[in-house]
Amino acid sequence: MRSLKRYLILILIFLFILVIAGCGAPSTGGQPTTKKITIEGYDEPMIGFATIGQGTTGGAGGEVVVVHDYFEFFDAVYHADDTPRVVLVDGTITYTPSYYLIDPKYLNTINIASNKTILGLGDGATISGISIRIGRQGDPEKNIVIRNITFENAPDDNISIWWGSSNIWIDHCTFKSAVDSNVDITRQGNYVTLSWNRFENVGAKGVSIVGSDDKLSDDADYLRVTYHHNFFNGTAGRNPRMRYGIVHIFNNYYTDVQLGPNGTCAVRALVEYNYFERVQIPASGTYNSPPGFIVFSKEDPENGDTNIYIESGTPQKNLPTLDQLTDGINYDFRDRADEWLNISNWIPYNYSPEDPINLPSVILEKAGAGKIIVKYE
């Protein structure tokens, strides 16, 4: 009995010491210890076609991964893993052919999986010598956000969105040289927004195509793309080049470009509130293909023009007509005339275009990588 009492007394003394020690421990004040992502600078909300469909949230709510080299980046975004994830790119991600010798899957083209956000840390990161592909034949991807990255020296397109992939937002990026285009949306890619990007020194083939072939008339129920607040500076072409689908081009700044937005194959393109400076042909509805529909005012498509032209040529409007809903070979949309000819229904989302007179200063100040600052602390 005495031994039991002595044992209990020792336990009580030990517990008392623990309580005293706990009282003397420093308090955390209830502050969380996990890191958070914050974005400063010219952070703008997503608008445009990327907000339609299932919406675009990228990897929001998923794990956060910081990557520093090709292998870490590959593992974080590869197409076989649709887990929601925010991938923070720190520094420059580049490719060398020796990676293929390590494993044949390590190519200079990386297929991005669904539900990913790719952000450049700090004032921006660089992806060099790598083509980003979103979607493969029979394997579409969806819900991807790419922001604050500089892309350069891609062996094909800098970014390809195709094979039914949808809900993609590309924002505050800078695009430089590529063997082909910078951002192509083809093969039924859908619900895409490109905003606040800079396209400069992009190479011989230009910026962006929407729809890749006159014969792919099935694309007409897809290819919904918005371009707003982008800077097209001395770009070779494809600003963009469009077929089928619906394309909304507003509040962009074009300088020293031969041909601005060009649409064929019954594309429905609303080109409004842009600033064209030294552009030989600001917009056109023909280009060695059946015509597309190009209008410059949603409110007054027949006579209105909301764009500004400085030292530029005459834009070529092409209003929708019943006769042009078929080319007699590849497509015939005359049975859908109510849908095609009603311009007021082309754009299904809310937006508030700003006065284009302000665009040169606004876009030069805010567009491109480094104009938002991404912190993780």
Automatic annotation (TrEMBL):
<dbReference type="InterPro" id="IPR012334">
    <property type="entry name" value="Pectin_lyas_fold"/>
</dbReference>
<dbReference type="InterPro" id="IPR045032">
    <property type="entry name" value="PEL"/>
</dbReference>
<dbReference type="InterPro" id="IPR002022">
    <property type="entry name" value="Pec_lyase"/>
</dbReference>
<keyword id="KW-0119">Carbohydrate metabolism</keyword>
<dbReference type="GO" id="GO:0005576">
    <property type="term" value="C:extracellular region"/>
</dbReference>
<feature type="domain" description="Pectate lyase">
    <location>
        <begin position="60"/>
        <end position="282"/>
    </location>
</feature>
<dbReference type="InterPro" id="IPR011050">
    <property type="entry name" value="Pectin_lyase_fold/virulence"/>
</dbReference>
<dbReference type="GO" id="GO:0000272">
    <property type="term" value="P:polysaccharide catabolic process"/>
</dbReference>
<keyword id="KW-0456">Lyase</keyword>
<dbReference type="GO" id="GO:0030570">
    <property type="term" value="F:pectate lyase activity"/>
</dbReference>
<comment type="similarity">
    <text>Belongs to the polysaccharide lyase 1 family.</text>
</comment>
<keyword id="KW-0624">Polysaccharide degradation</keyword>
<keyword id="KW-0964">Secreted</keyword>
<dbReference type="Pfam" id="PF00544">
    <property type="entry name" value="Pectate_lyase_4"/>
</dbReference>
<protein>
    <recommendedName>
        <fullName>Pectate lyase domain-containing protein</fullName>
    </recommendedName>
</protein>
